[in-house]
Amino acid sequence: MDEEMTLPWDEPGEPEAEQESPTERVLSVTEVNRMAKGALERFEVLVAGEVSNVSKPYAYYLYCNLRDEEAILPAIVPIRVFDALDFKLADGVSVLVRGTLSLYEKQGKYQVRVTEMSPYGVGEIQRRIEALKKKLQAEGLFADERKRALPAFPGRIGVVTSPRGAAIRDVTVTLARRFPAARVFVRGVRVQGEGAVEQICAALDLFDGAWPVDVVILARGGGSIEDLEPFSTEPVARKVASMSVPVITGIGHEPDVSVADLVADRRASTPTAAAEAAVPDRSQVTAVLAGSSSHMRRCVDRRLNVASAGLVHLRRAGVYRSPDVLLSAPMQRLERLMMALPASPARGLARARARFDGVCLRPVFRLPGQLLARRALEVEGVGARLQAAGVRSIERRRGTLERLIAKARALSPLAVLERGYSITFKAGTGEVVRDSDEVETGEGVSIRLAKGALDAQVTGKE
Questions:
Q1: In the beta sheet, which residues pair with residue 102?
Q2: How many H helices and E strands in the chain?
Q3: pLDDT interval class at 319 (50, 70, 90)
Q4: Can you give the pLDDT at residue 56?
Q5: Residue 196 neighbours by CB under 8 Å, 6+ apart
Q6: From the CB of residue 90, how many other CB atoms can be counted at a distance below 10 Å?
Q7: How far apart are CA 247 and CA 249, in angstroms?
Q8: Of 91, 122, 153, which residue is a domain's last?
């Protein structure tokens, strides 16, 4: 480590004044890289840094980066060194590495070839994330009680993600397949690097105000701890927590958990899973409607059966089959009264006879068959009205669903693209270009087609 570094072009020679006609030597790129490689590989280094972008183990090596706040150093870890580690090598782990520097001549890139590796505290990014988690948890932002239920049938869905890559395709295709009745609004943002935090917060503000929606999906594909860092920053976490509508996150892959995931109303393992959580499955909705239709039919049938049973009971009642049975008791009582009365009070007898005649003239005793027929017609009319009302309700609901699905298909951005249209985004900001005055000649644009996308440059305007 303390050996003085002497490069080939620094070899001691005669003083410049004593040299005869010195000639400057021209080196090739290969020669320069070879001399640098020879100089670098003479020294052993001891480096402390935070691990990032760990690759899968290959036959003989795995690759990762060592980083600090200002620089990144690529590292090669032999499999024998990796197998001897007594800790999990993962993004965010701080390590102490001993090794030698080497240079890949073809590309002029240098790296450290690891001979020993041991834990060395906690990585800086991981430290910041853990500190933020403790702070927000103490404020109750991770509590299940504050998380809201998702709407059962969202009509407007906001999507915040990169305008390029697999995430936006996975989300939009899944939403269109499962619930085409919903309108989907996509706001393209940077999801890593400089400006990502500001753009993500601005997009969430948009869906929380100017573009009101029923639910928001915040998504991006997988990546290293540095790539996912914007989703573990305090501004993004607090904006997600303060949204007036539910937020679903689908950030990275299954093992990746950001701070935004912890404060969101629902966390999904991938962008596709986030889209599936946001909307119901069209086939399930159809099954529910079919079940409701069957339930209504059963209710109508039960009402008709009850009414029919009542009609049968009325027909079997003795009073309607033999009206004389009902009249026999009053007649016997009248006879007893007549026998008990003296012959003189003819007036009282006349009143009694008149009351008796009035009872006999009631329709129920005169025409019991007509009464039964009228009641039967009333019962049949009620049953028919119930059945017709049930059928109308079912047809009305089915028609509404079909109109919504047809309207959604007609308004879907994907349907428009299938007819030969395209959507143009600014390459730098991801904003949709609606007017030729919004771009300048020479500016880069991204053109979204029904299948795939094109990167282009504006060469002229009309």
A1: 111
A2: 15, 13
A3: low
A4: 85
A5: 189, 190, 230
A6: 14
A7: 7
A8: 122
Nearest to 350 by CA among 341, 72, 371: 341
Domain final residue, candidates 225, 260, 280 = 280
Asked if residue 115 and residue 20 are part of one domain, the reply reads yes
Residue 52 host element (H or E) = strand 44-52
CA distance 379 to 310: 9
CA distances from 115 to 2, 79, 88, 100 (A): 19, 11, 17, 8
- Most confident listed range (265-274, 297-306, 340-349): 265-274
Question: What does 161-214 look like in DSSP terms, one character per residue?
Answer: E-SSSHHHHHHHHHHHHH-TTSEEEEEE---SSTTHHHHHHHHHHHHTTTS--S
**Quick one: 274 and 167 in the same domain?**
yes
Residue 131 falls within a domain, yes or no? no
- Whether 46 and 62 have beta carbons less than 8 Å apart is answered as no
- Asked if residues 246 and 116 have their Cβ atoms less than 8 Å apart, the reply is no
Quick one: CA dihedral 181, 186, 191, 195, positive or negative?
negative
Say if CB 218 and CB 200 are below 8 A apart.
yes
Nearest to 102 by CA among 187, 40, 146: 40
Same domain for 214 and 116, yes or no, is no
The dihedral built from the CA positions of residue 237, 239, 242 and 243, taken in this order, carries a sign that is negative
Asked if residue 134 is part of any domain, the answer here is: no
Task: Note whether residue 342 is domain-resident.
Answer: yes
| Domain co-membership, 298 together with 401 | yes
Q: Which amino acid is at 150?
A: L
Which candidate, 213, 215, 209, 218, places its Cα nearest to that of 188? 218
Q: Measured between alpha carbons, how far is 161 from 199 in angstroms, rounded to an integer?
A: 10
pLDDT at residue 100 greater than cutoff 70: yes
| Whole-number Cα distances in Å, 95 to 47, 53, 64, 78, 89 | 8, 14, 12, 16, 9
In the numeric block, the tokens 């282009």 are attached to: 456
Judged against a pLDDT cut of 90, whether residue 376 lies above it is answered with no
pLDDT in tens, 105-138: 888 899 999 999 988 865 677 888 889 999 999 9
| Domain extent for 108 | 8-122
Cα–Cα distance for residue pair 108/251, rounded to 1 Å: 35
Cα(14)–Cα(25) distance, integer angstroms: 16
